[in-house]
Amino acid sequence: MNTTSRRSLDDILVRHWIALTLLAWAMVATWYVWHDWNMVRWLSLGDTDDNMRLMQVRAWLAGQPWYDLRNYRLNPPVGFDIHWSRIVDLPIAGLILFFRLFTSNAWAERLACGIAPLIPLSIAMLGVAATVRRLIHPLAWPLGVLFLLGTSATMLMFLPERIDHHGWQLAMLSLTVAGLCDAQGARGGLMVGLASAVSLSIGLEMLPYCAMAGAILTLRWVWERAEAIRLQAYALSLGGGSAIGFAAFASNANYAMRCDALTPVWLSVTVAAGALLFLMARLNPQARGVRIGLAVAAGAVIAAGFVHFFPQCLGRPEGVSPELQKNWLDNVREAKPIYKHPFRLGFPIAALPVVGVIGVILGTWRARRSPMLIGWSAVALFVTFACAMLLWQVRAGPAAQLLAVPGATLLGWIVLPWLLEHRSMPVRIGGTVAAFLIVSGLFAGLIIKYLPVDRPNAYTKRVNGATGSCVRYTVLKALDRYPAQTIFTFTDLGPRLITVTHHDAIAGPYHRNGDAILDVQHAFGRSADEAHAIIRRHGATMLLICPNHSESTNYRARNPGGFYDQLAHGQVPAWLTPLPLPRNSPLRLFKVD
Questions:
Q1: What distance in Å separates the CA atoms of residue 42 and residue 44, rounded to the nearest whole number?
Q2: Does position 57 have pLDDT exceeding 90, yes or no?
Q3: Do the Cβ atoms of 523 and 535 come closer than 8 Å?
Q4: Does 461-592 carry CATH code 3.40.50?
Q5: C-alpha angle 226/230/236, rounded to 5°?
Q6: According to DSSP H, which parts of 206-263 are helical?
Q7: pTM to 2 decimals?
């Protein structure tokens, strides 16, 4: 490529980066839908939350009021309130209504669930591209987008059928980091505030990141008085955006003083924080010491007010009983620190965040004498915080990998051109490939396959196989040969059962459904007579189990001799009558007398 052509290409990449990023997204989205077509075809909503999300959309399209998020298909007839909002329902419902114009409702749902998760990926890609352009070089954004597409944990949240809200929250996180390093103060503050408000209106999973972003913007103002305009824009957009989000999307149940969603509790915090930060930035005292004092005082007021007015939220936000916390929440694997997980799982998740932290530290050092220092410092603090979050919960992995992309891109921007221009061909080829795999974090997923650590044993394979087989569309759909009724089954099977079949279930793994979860645990763990009483009390007329399902292993391990353990050993009480299912079905179905 001659110099003129190179300059022309560079000019196109610089001037049209938004359009080119969206074009790349369209190509990636098309490829994913094609590659995962079987998942789309069989409505393979692999997570309980994805199934519950579709049920929420179905209920709304069927006429359930906008602010009523009670699901009546679990624990009928009263149902239970879920702590989500309808923000994520909007694109799914819109796609379903669009595809209904051309096909059946069943296929409209399948197509919508395949495409909807890819929509926030476009926002995430734009956020990463903007961050990389601002921090590294206007031409570096394609490398950043490429590294994002290579993330393992992050990209899982955008794949077809992953219709729950995590992809949208990651998209907002991408915009947050882009706003933190934006040289235009008002625009950057506005972006961080609105992204935080939208994320909190969706759910509280990103609350620590939103708080950290606010703290970083406050520190920028403390350090540099000229940052007042950025802090004012952030404060107004955070408080105002949260208020709008609450008014437009908070369910009727979320008007209670609960701690697990954007209720009046957290709305009070965001509005109060926005007001105090705006007032501080408006006063904008000349002395840095005074600004520090104001920031500390504002933080103390917010903390003291929270402790005084909302003491019920000082513990776990779910507010479940001690028994349920011990038997369920404390054992949720994704809520455990990364060091408590097998190396085979933790290493591929942590590799890129570690590379990213090294990259942002290097970037901050390189910018120490330039105007980019404050932007790099803000991103470095945010990325390091995200990496440290892995030591709290492994579910922070997708966010940590996403935020690691700018640091990894800097390392790639430095190392890869040098290797590509090396005079030695082995270095140009082998060195470039090796460097790319290391800097992108992809090396971890490649080498872990060959390391003799934490290999799944026969028991684990059997449990994983049973768990996957029992939620297959064709397996559960066979239950529709029986008239619609309430089926008593495992908590983790409940959402999938009501999504695929016309039957109702008792419980799903949601803390506001806590009493029903305990009833399921008590029924399977206690005596057959107690199980019979609980099942009848819920009006269930059939019992469904999946031998070797991951949840069933807990009942057998914790309650030897209990009702489920007896069933697993072929001891069926007289009040249960086996019902036929298709040959080779992994399920066992009983009529309850």
A1: 5
A2: yes
A3: yes
A4: yes
A5: 135
A6: 207-223, 228-249
A7: 0.95
